[in-house]
Prior knowledge:
The structure holds 2 protein chains of 2 kinds. Chain A is mainly β. Chain A is built from no helices and 11 strands. In chain B, a hairpin with a 2-residue loop joins strand 5 and strand 6.
Amino acid sequence: QKEVEQNSGPLSVPEGAIASLNCTYSDRGSQSFFWYRQYSGKSPELIMFIYSNGDKEDGRFTAQLNKASQYVSLLIRDSQPSDSATYLCASSGGGADGLTFGKGTHLIIQP
Amino acid sequence: EAGVAQSPRYKIIEKRQSVAFWCNPISGHATLYWYQQILGQGPKLLIQFQNNGVVDDSQLPKDRFSAERLKGVDSTLKIQPAKLEDSAVYLCASRPGGAGLMANEKLFFGSGTQLSVL
């Protein structure tokens, strides 16, 4: 059974610092990885996707993928209080089409 | 562009009662998903439709849950009878493509239906 593991947190980071969120996955057949942000009581919204080994940058966000270690991370630079949310890591591929989500990491940016 | 519409927004029922949720995906989206999100957990896929056909229902508790997408557009998810552990947010999502999920393809989520089973 495919699994995506995340530390549930909370992860507390001072405003302006770098927030580092991590995720591991069990299915080596997984091909693509997604980071969703979910505010309390709201639906998930896509922040970034990555499918190649290495780093991918988009504004203040950098996604990192290491397929050998089955490890995905999300870095948020210059963290803002509005970044406080639950961050969900998800995988797709490996024969299944729907996303497999982790439990999410609750991130708190302290002003 | 209108988003994914879901109703009702909230539902409170007693255990053993029945409940139904409705989803209208974005116009033209071929693939529709129902996810269950229990408090403190990530969304779990219940069922996936491509047009009006079921692609994956391996995690759907078929003894009590059913879903349909008869005309390949809107969809209903039903629970009968409900159990306490069914308390969750039920999210509907859709995407335009009908083939396998592409790496850069985004899922569009509805606002969800929050179900409380007492």
